[in-house]
Design a protein that fits this description.
- The chain starts with a helix and ends in an 11-residue tail after the last helix.
- Strands 3, 4, 5, 6, 9, 10 and 11 form a seven-stranded mixed β-sheet that branches. Strands 1-2 form a two-stranded antiparallel ribbon. It has a two-stranded parallel sheet with strand order 7-8.
- Strand 3, helix 5 and strand 4 form a beta-alpha-beta unit.
- It is an alpha/beta fold.
- The chain is built from eleven helices and eleven strands.
- The chain has three domains: 80 residues, Arc Repressor Mutant, subunit A (Orthogonal Bundle), CATH 1.10.10; 100 residues, 3-Layer(aba) Sandwich (D-Maltodextrin-Binding Protein, domain 2); 100 residues, D-Maltodextrin-Binding Protein, domain 2.
Amino acid sequence: MFNARYFRTFITLVETGSFTRTARRLEMTQPGVSQHVRKLEEYLGKPLLDRQGRRFVLTESGRRAYDYALKLFAEHEQFRHSLDNDSLDSGECRLASPGSVGLMLYPFILGQQQMQPGLTVSYSFAFNGEIVADVLGGCHDLGIITEAVRHPDLDCEPWHQEPLCLVVPADFAGNGLADLMGIGFISYSGGESHAGALLKANFPDFRSMSHFPRQGFTNEVSMVLDAVARGLGFTVVSRVVLETSPWQRQVKELSLPQPVHEILHLVMRAGEQVPRRYVRLLEGYREQRRHERFGFGEGPERHEA
């Protein structure tokens, strides 16, 4: 007979690599863990473990059973979460974004959780490609990415935009491309694309980011302004990164005539409607950003998707 507890015990055993640790985690006896595994092997008609004294390795059937069990429980969790779709103030929020977005969005969501104890938050910081893969795999209900994606199993739509900022050391006295080339560029994942778009819109003689000396790189965008504050170069980041940076007083933003924005997109599995609590959280965050930037009137971002 199918028994989900046997699969849960087997998943835990594989993850811990130990019957003793599995028993402790699941608050069972060690013989009870062994019995669950034996019952699962009897149900499937295949040995799942190659036992070698106190150690074991998975058989091919064991590896396939583990992969199936992970998928089984992921689908169960998706179903369970779907039952809470109509609730505005309760249920789990499973979402992911790049660090540049989460620097401000994650604290906002935590604040909402404090006001609505029925909410729980599972928030992951990741790069665009990882977020897309995890949404497809059911690890997240919703992803926020900085580049639109096309995939037959995903829906992707623009959600919010943040201005890009040209950030230089606080004592920088220049204002032209030659001056920027003189100090060089500090890059991060997606940084050259952002910089190229902003410089192209504001400097007619701009040709390519390849003309700028590259003074460094970090895959953590929240740290890039540390390098700028030390006078090692300039960078281009979204306003959220600048506003949340501990080094914002050691750098400055150069004023430019033509604004360029980073467009953020929501990505979810095709045909699925995210629970209403997500809609309220995302709209609440956008409203907060409008108030912070433009006050409580009708700000210029009312045209956003």
